[in-house]
Amino acid sequence: MTETVIEVRGLVNRFGSQTVHENLDLDVYRGEIIGIVGGSGTGKSVLLRTIVGLVRPVAGEVRVFGEDLLALSAEKRSKVERRFGVLFQSGALFSSLTVAENVALPLVEHAGLDRMDAQRLAGVKLALAGLPVDAGRKYPSELSGGMVKRAALARALALDPEILFLDEPTAGLDPISAAAFDSLIVTLRNALGLTVFLVTHDLDTLYSTCDRVAVLSRHRVLAAAPIGEVARTDDAWVQAYFNGPRGRAATLAAHRGKD
Amino acid sequence: MAQAPQPGSATLVPDQGGSRLALAGDWTLAHYADLQRRAGELAGRIGNDTAVDIGQLGAMDTAGAFVIAELLGSARTQKLAQDESLPDARRALLKTVGDAVDTYCTGVRKKRDAGFVVLLERIGISVQSTWKQTLKLLAFIGITLQGIAATVWRPRRWRVTSLVSHIEQTGLDAVPILALLSFMVGAVVAFLGSTALASYGASLFTVDLIGFAFLREFGVLLTAILLAGRTASAFTAQIGSMKAREEIDAIRTLGLDPVELLVLPRVLALLVSLPLLTFLAMIAGIAGGGVVCLTVLKMSPSMFLSMFQSDMSLGQFLVGIAKAPVFAFMIGVIGCMEGFKVSGSAQSVGEHTTSAVVQSLFVVILIDALAALFYMEMGW
């Protein structure tokens, strides 16, 4: 029943002599929130960038909605790209536009709305992402880190994408904002039927949001399964990650939350 | 949702005791403009008690939900979201968007009035900002001089590596373009001179024209203009992008002085390279003029040289080169200062880079004009 929206097969990524991915396989199913974890430098962000087509892999195949992005013509590719939204690690808001204009930009360019309509709809997206009304008129440099993340999420959601790529969305947020962001993502997934590809280090986020967790280690996906299963994987890094002091605290918090 | 997608529609169906609003089709971003228009038509005819039927609704995304929420108002959208007969996902979407519409109200747009008052206001603002700009420039010159005075006695605090690297970038790297430029301008001046002087039978004095022009004015002016475009902008962009990425703040919190670290090596590098480049520009310009004299005016090299030697004095050269350090200092200071004024955005880096070039060109030409007046009064 569950349809595969992202299919990565035999992916190889190399920068100079440094191998990042070697024969990496990964499937992402429609409607799930998949968390990608791994130590620093295991290529989580590179994997994300490869899937959205920003990095050209040395070998292997990446299919999004069954289409190989790198083999498509520019026009077709742009059509597929409109079906996903990306939230970059540092927000990547256009600093010369106001926050509302940032969100309105894809609406004007791709959905063909006029500026007034686009601005109004952008306002709703900003409110959806949990930003106050007056934030829309500000420039990105005037926002706090958490607000930048929310504004970037609003821009990623602008075209009502089917897949949402999030690169460390809660990094640098205070725990309260991070928790709010987590529940926001779950709400949006439930409401909009999104598939969420989430790169994160935040154990609380993993426990509270993800349906499945994929562990990147030694150039490939070590395990991709629900978090309880992954945590039991017999691997030194996985054990240290999930059963270290922080991992235990997050597990406890997650259990307490469920009771 | 197996049926073929069709654009969303909204119709008022007469019902017992009133009317019923029937929504059908796809309410998605693709049909946003149509839906918005349709909703606008219906808006006045929907009362608080109009029943809403969304049983036939196809796909719906946030854009569609927004139109519905706007049409019905946030309270009724919330009520709709509690309708048990709808699928969970749809209710969640309606609720989320309903909440969002609730917090979001159309911002009050400031009316922009045009006319005489605005014109006056803008003139006032720009006069004020010019004044502030001048004060800032003077302050920055002060800070730079203070920095030089504080470090010049302590060789251990000289940033020799940085200084040499900047001399290479601002001086050595500019040599080819500057030499070519001056050579060509020299040739052009010689052509002009020979045609203008030919009617008096004095084309021989083209040599003097080239000599005076390049020793006194063109050598230093061409160099300063080139460096104002090439180096002032580079300084602003370098320091500006550091400022935008909080690197300047990092330097401060590490207990270091950004002026000493960033400004002094750049300004001092220009102070070294601009006079040297000026000398080069003079030579190249005179050479360019000389080539024209030899080829077009059929002068012999020895004649060119002897005339040049008898008519030119060391004073002419000194008068020209004396301006070089002043230009160098101003270009360097303006480039660095604009870099420090950058705030946050990439656009700001661009604005200040432009401003740095314009200001340094302006200052260079202003100082040159004042110097010309001064030299004339002094009879130099």
Tell me what you see in this structure:
The complex is a heterodimer of chains A (259) and B (380). Chain A contains ten helices and ten strands. Chain A is α/β, with parallel strands linked by helices and 259 residues long. Chain A has two domains: 172 residues, Rossmann fold (3-Layer(aba) Sandwich); 68 residues, no CATH class. In chain A, the strands form two sheets. Chain A has a six-stranded mixed β-sheet, with helices on both faces. Chain A has a four-stranded antiparallel β-sheet with strand order 2-1-4-5, covered by helices on one side. In chain A, strand 9 and strand 10 form a beta hairpin. In chain A, helix 6 runs parallel beside helix 7 and helix 7 runs parallel beside helix 10. Chain A is globular and about 55 Å long. The model of chain A has no long low-confidence stretch (mean pLDDT 83). With 380 residues, chain B is mainly alpha-helical. The mean pLDDT of chain B is 86. Chain B folds into two domains: 95 residues, Transcription Regulator spoIIAA, CATH 3.30.750; 248 residues, no CATH class. The chains are: A alpha/beta (259), B mainly alpha (380).
What topology emerges from the helices and strands here?
The complex is a heterodimer of chains A (259) and B (380).
Chain A: E1 4-15, E2 18-29, E3 33-38, H1 44-51, E4 59-64, E5 67-68, H2 74-81, E6 84-87, H3 99-109, H4 115-128, H5 145-156, E7 163-167, H6 175-192, E8 195-199, H7 203-209, E9 212-217, E10 220-225, H8 227-231, H9 236-243, H10 245-258
Parallel strand pairs in A: 3-8, 3-9, 6-7, 7-8
Antiparallel strand pairs in A: 1-2, 1-4, 4-5, 9-10
Chain B: E1 9-15, E2 18-27, H1 32-43, E3 51-60, H2 62-72, H3 74-81, H4 88-103, H5 116-152, H6 160-170, H7 175-198, H8 206-244, H9 247-253, H10 258-295, H11 301-311, H12 314-321, H13 323-341, H14 346-378
Helix pairs in contact in B: 1-2, 2-3, 2-4, 3-4, 5-10, 5-13, 6-10, 7-8, 7-10, 8-10, 8-12, 8-13, 8-14, 10-13, 13-14
